[in-house]
């Protein structure tokens, strides 16, 4: 409540004297609370059209078509992309991966990180502005908000106005649509881990599992909260990329920048006025670049960590320049060196191939080549051999020594696998159990192998041997080391 004008207003700093007793305000003074934290101001981004806006929406359609569509694709008789955690198998089109293939996931993460470093060094926060899920879903949620509550001015007036039927139904419809998008996103996310057709059947029969319900709601409400309410706060305060991006920037990195030499001094004027006669720059100080910014910054203040490089300010500034009949490009994608020195596009391009960019590119393609070669050269099956823990070795009638091993064969193809097992390393050593084994498509199976050694062929102790597993329908031959025990 504002105090009467007659009452003195005194700002009282909180201090502590040597006797640790707080200083009391003067008698009759009205203390004023000074907050150390700035209250969050809601941002109302204005809609904008232009080439960068069209590119953003193209990425929205592409990424969401990919995300929502992939679980519904079939590859043979299964889902094309499925991470079956219960069966410990991951299907990515033709590929069948097991937990033992974790190295490929590591390679994929390294490729993603190096790609991010490369793109950031060349063109700034392209990922943040066009492909980051936070940006994509915020764009979708803001589109719903504009369709239900109106653009910037109408939305602000409606928020400031009293509650009425018009305000109630618009906000209610927005919340329903936001929740629908969030829950559908959560359902799709779970569909990558539980076959989505099975999941859809469970929804129809109201027989959802508890963990499936949890993850649909968790991911759905995370989308709802992050894209509907937190928005720019995620980019500014939660995302670590905004904090360490400066380590990958230099003055030859493409960023969204304001040409200060051309735009200053800024000031309003009529469309017919000559800015030279008014001693003004090209910027008419309309503040539209601030109004369209999803993080609410003023690009004219220079490069800021809050800028996600979406190009919305460049689009709206070009519209203003067209209306004023000024050349475009007052706000544009350029480099700090180019803006300061007035470089052309060809001069900017020549500075792209600098040392760090070349280094990132070489390392990136090297790792892509290694991971790609590893996938292409991957054998059609994997083998693991371990000794039967129930007995190390046993002597049979007639002095024959027997060891029992357990052999795991993982079929990484989607056709039946037939293999033949042999063993060598000791004279006379042979497999007395079934030597010809079969494994169903994309399955893993354990087999018990009994190895016998005639008497007198080896001294007591451990002896190295080799299992040789030959794919009968393929040229692949895998060898596994083991140890044959001869008791004393």
Tell me what you see in this structure.
The protein is of the alpha+beta class. The protein has two domains: 41-378, no CATH class; 381-486, Immunoglobulin-like (Sandwich). It is built from 16 helices and 18 strands. The chain has helices spanning 51-69, 102-123, 126-131, 133-149, 152-160, 165-190, 196-204, 210-230, 232-238, 241-244, 260-263, 288-291, 312-324, 336-341, 345-350, 355-376, and strands spanning 9-10, 30-31, 74-75, 78-79, 81-84, 89-92, 95-97, 255-258, 331-334, 381-387, 394-395, 401-411, 417-424, 430-431, 436-439, 444-453, 461-471, 477-486. Strands 10, 11, 12, 14 and 16 form a five-stranded antiparallel beta sheet that branches. A hairpin with a 4-residue loop joins strand 5 (81-84) and strand 6. Helix 2 (102-123) runs antiparallel to helix 16 and helix 4 (133-149) packs across helix 8 (210-230). The longest helix is centred in the middle third of the chain and has 26 residues, at 165-190. It is elongated, with a radius of gyration of 34 Å. The N and C termini lie far apart (95 Å). Residues 1-18 have low confidence and may be disordered.
Task: Kindly list the characteristics that best describe this protein.
about 500 residues, alpha+beta, Immunoglobulin-like, 2 domains, four-stranded antiparallel beta sheet, 16 helices, elongated
Write a short abstract of this structure.
40% of the residues lie in helices and 19% in strands.
Secondary structure layout plus pairing:
Elements (H helix, E strand, L loop, with lengths): L8 E2 L19 E2 L19 H19 L4 E2 L2 E2 L1 E4 L4 E4 L2 E3 L4 H22 L2 H6 L1 H17 L2 H9 L4 H26 L5 H9 L5 H21 L1 H7 L2 H4 L10 E4 L1 H4 L24 H4 L20 H13 L6 E4 L1 H6 L3 H6 L4 H22 L4 E7 L6 E2 L5 E11 L5 E8 L5 E2 L4 E4 L4 E10 L7 E11 L5 E10 L2
Parallel strand pairs: 1-2
Antiparallel strand pairs: 3-4, 5-6, 6-7, 8-9, 10-12, 11-12, 12-16, 13-15, 13-17, 14-16, 17-18
Helix pairs in contact: 1-4, 2-16, 4-6, 4-8, 6-8
């Amino acid at each position: 409540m504002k105090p009467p004008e007659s009452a003195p207003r005194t700002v009282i700093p909180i201090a502590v004297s040597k006797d640790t007793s707080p200083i009391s305000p003067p008698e009759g003074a009205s203390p004023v609370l000074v907050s150390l934290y700035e209250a969050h101001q809601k941002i109302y981004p204005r809609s904008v059209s232009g080439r960068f806006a069209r590119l953003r929406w193209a990425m929205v359609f592409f990424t969401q078509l990919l995300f929502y569509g992939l679980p519904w694709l079939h590859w043979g008789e299964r889902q094309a992309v499925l991470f079956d955690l219960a069966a410990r198998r991951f299907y990515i089109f033709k590929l069948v991966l097991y937990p033992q293939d974790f190295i490929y996931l590591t390679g994929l993460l390294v490729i993603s990180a190096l790609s991010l470093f490369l793109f950031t060094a060349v063109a700034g926060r392209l990922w943040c502005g066009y492909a980051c899920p936070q940006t994509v879903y915020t764009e979708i949620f803001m589109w719903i908000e504009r369709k239900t509550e109106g653009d910037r001015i109408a939305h602000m007036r409606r928020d400031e106005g009293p509650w009425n039927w018009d305000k109630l139904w618009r906000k209610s419809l927005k919340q329903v649509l936001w929740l629908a998008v969030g829950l559908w996103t959560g359902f799709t996310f779970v569909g990558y881990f539980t076959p989505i057709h099975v999941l859809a059947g469970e929804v129809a029969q109201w027989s959802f599992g508890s963990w499936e319900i949890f993850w649909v709601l968790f991911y759905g409400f995370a989308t709802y909260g992050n894209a509907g309410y937190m928005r720019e706060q995620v980019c500014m305060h939660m995302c670590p990329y905004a904090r360490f991006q400066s380590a990958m920037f230099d003055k030859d990195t493409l960023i969204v920048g304001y040409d200060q030499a051309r735009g200053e001094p800024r000031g309003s004027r009529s469309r017919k006025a000559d800015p030279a006669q008014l001693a003004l720059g090209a910027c008419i100080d309309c503040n539209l670049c601030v109004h369209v910014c999803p993080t609410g910054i003023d690009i004219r203040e220079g490069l800021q960590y809050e800028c996600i490089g979406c190009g919305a300010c460049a689009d709206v500034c070009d519209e203003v320049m067209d209306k004023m009949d000024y050349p475009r490009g007052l706000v544009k994608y350029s480099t700090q060196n180019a803006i300061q020195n007035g470089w052309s596009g060809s001069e900017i391009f020549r500075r792209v191939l600098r040392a760090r960019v070349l280094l990132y590119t070489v390392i990136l393609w090297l790792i892509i080549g290694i991971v790609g070669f590893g996938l292409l050269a991957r054998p059609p099956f994997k083998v693991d051999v371990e000794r039967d823990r129930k007995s190390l070795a046993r002597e049979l009638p007639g002095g024959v020594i027997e060891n029992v091993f357990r052999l795991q064969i993982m079929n990484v193809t989607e056709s039946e696998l037939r293999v033949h097992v042999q063993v060598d390393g000791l004279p006379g050593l042979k497999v007395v159990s079934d030597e010809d084994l079969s494994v169903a498509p994309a399955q893993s199976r354990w087999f018990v192998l009994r190895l016998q050694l005639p008497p007198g062929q080896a001294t007591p102790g451990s002896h190295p041997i080799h299992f040789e597993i030959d794919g009968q329908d393929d040229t692949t031959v895998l060898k596994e080391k083991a140890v044959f025990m001869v008791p004393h």
